[in-house]
Amino acid sequence: SEAGATTTDAPAKKHPKGVILGKDGKPCRPCNSFAAFTSQTKSLKAATKTVSATPGDCPADVETLGRSSWTLLHSIAAIYPTTPTASDQSDIKSFMKLFAKFYPCWSCAEDFQEYIQKKDVRASSRDEFGNWLCDAHNEVNKKLGKPVFDCSKWEERWRTGWKD
Ligand code: FAD
């Protein structure tokens, strides 16, 4: 779910200020932005006293984690075989299912698992998998109010580089 959003169905999982909590009842680092996470700690100094005072050296927040994860996923699509074997196809489907299960932002993971259940992973070719992933990413973009990416360009963005 969108970090910072308020919901009516799962109030126990959110701090009054809209911060997503972990299963332990404490603010969940990979589910929130660095700013939202630290707003729930006594002070920024207290939150970062054993590490650097800059976000760069801290455990990943929802945005850093997301950006890195999409980079990994689209880069996997970029090297996925153009004509995958039955075993490649079954492996990538299992990988995506397990990725969604273990994704560190639990609220993102729940929505992503639901998406995979609704829209089965399509991976009978590189192009099909690249487009499936692009659509999945766009679903999250829409939820977060970000621009929708033109999926006809996924390969230029993640494999070949932009055409001049
Ligand atoms: P990102 O969305 O991280 O994208 C990185 C780059 O990918 C962009 O700069 C662009 O060049 C390219 N790109 C953008 N869209 C596409 C596309 N459709 N296809 C191909 N390339 C594209 N955050 C939340 O707050 N709540 C959530 O519920 C949530 N769920 C997530 C679920 C998953 C599985 C993942 C991996 C991330 C999730 N995130 C969630 C994180 C969120 O999607 C972003 O990664 C984060 O907000 C940082 O966004 P960004 O603007 O840097 O670009």
Notes on the structure:
There is one protein chain. The chain is mainly α. The chain has two domains: 11-57, no CATH class; 62-160, ERV/ALR sulfhydryl oxidase domain (Four Helix Bundle (Hemerythrin (Met), subunit A), Up-down Bundle), CATH 1.20.120.310. It contains seven helices and no strands. α3 (62-79) runs antiparallel to α6 (126-143), α3 (62-79) crosses α7 (154-160) and α4 (86-102) packs antiparallel against α5. The model is unreliable at 1-12 (pLDDT under 50). GO terms for molecular function: flavin adenine dinucleotide binding; flavin-dependent sulfhydryl oxidase activity.
Features:
0% strand; 2 domains; 164 residues; mainly alpha; Four Helix Bundle (Hemerythrin (Met), subunit A); binds flavin-adenine dinucleotide
List the helices and strands and how they pair.
Layout: H1 34-39, H2 44-48, H3 62-79, H4 86-102, H5 106-118, H6 126-143, H7 154-160
Helix pairs in contact: 3-6, 3-7, 4-5
The structure holds flavin-adenine dinucleotide.
Flavin-adenine dinucleotide binds next to helix 3, helix 5, helix 6 and helix 7.
Radius of gyration: 18 Å
Question: What is the count of β-strands?
Answer: 0
Give the CA-CA distance, first to last residue.
37 Å
Average of pLDDT: 86
Share of residues in strands: under 5%
Helix content: 40-55%
Q: How many helical stretches?
A: 7
So, the CATH homologous superfamily of the largest domain?
ERV/ALR sulfhydryl oxidase domain
What is the CATH-assigned architecture of the largest domain? Up-down Bundle
Order of helices and strands: HHHHHHH
The unreliable regions are 1-12
Q: Any idea of the CATH topology of the largest domain?
A: Four Helix Bundle (Hemerythrin (Met), subunit A)
Largest sheet: none
| Total number of domains | 2
Pfam families: Evr1_Alr
Protein name: Sulfhydryl oxidase
Catalytic activity: 2 R'C(R)SH + O2 = R'C(R)S-S(R)CR' + H2O2
Cofactor: FAD
